[in-house]
Specification:
It comes from Oryza sativa subsp. japonica. 34% of the residues lie in helices and 30% in strands. By secondary structure, it is of the alpha+beta class. The strands form three sheets. Strands 2, 3, 4, 5 and 6 form a five-stranded antiparallel sheet that branches. A four-stranded mixed sheet has the order 9-8-11-10. Helix 3 (128-138) runs antiparallel to helix 6 (193-205), helix 4 (157-163) crosses helix 5 (165-174) and helix 6 crosses helix 7. It starts with 7 loop residues before the first strand and ends with a helix. The model is unreliable at 213-219 and 253-263 (pLDDT under 50).
Length: 263
Amino acid sequence: MAPSSNLTQAARAVHKFNVNGYSATKAMAKHEHVSSKRLTVAGYAWEIHYTPGHDAHWHYWVAFKLVFLGIGEQAQRAGGDDDDNDAGAIKAELEASGFITGDSFAVRCTITVLSKNTINSAEPSPDLHLQLGELLRSGRFADVEFIVSGVSIAAHRCVLAARSPSLAAAVLKGGTRKKDGSVRVEVKDDMRAGVFRALLHFIYTDTLMELDWREDGSDPLLPRTMVMSLNEAAGRYGLERLKQICENMLGFDDACSADCAVM
């Protein structure tokens, strides 16, 4: 069974209405009343009306009515009274109850305002890394072309500038501007295209991609060799977080190898 949800929330206020000089109020006309001070509950304005000579159901009542004035401080009561909303006691029973002492009595009035509970749906997971990853994969709006081991890889200068100033500087210094305004950069130092793709993937998404893929039908790099190459590239281009991830992976492999040797 699915758990239930609370669809309402409540605001509550308690007001003590003191009636002093009860005997004097008995002389008031049938529909005359005494109003409480203005009360504000949940942003709504209210008054409590005390009618000492209310006539209903063949009895005289001491009646209390909660009157809605409106929203906010400028609210004014509109419309007439609704007798069905009165609460109180038969006058004869009240006078015989012993609650009137010193010609005074008090009534505690509790005002509860229910409102719909605002249900906030869960915020969607951040997907910026997915969007940037798709931008890298598609090559749309790319203005940089890296040539790595004869393979063309597209990228975006603005992303490189934000994530790897060292790589962005290499584009500015070592790039050749093409007719369409983009820049072509030859990446040397025996960099493999797969390693450079992994480097760019991290720059765009802040995540590490799968490391055992094939390049142009050739055998894939061994995972450890790939991580070592990626670690070297991360150091070269100032990607400290990627470098730390690679070093942790290499350290884990070393620890596993040591454990296996001991066993």
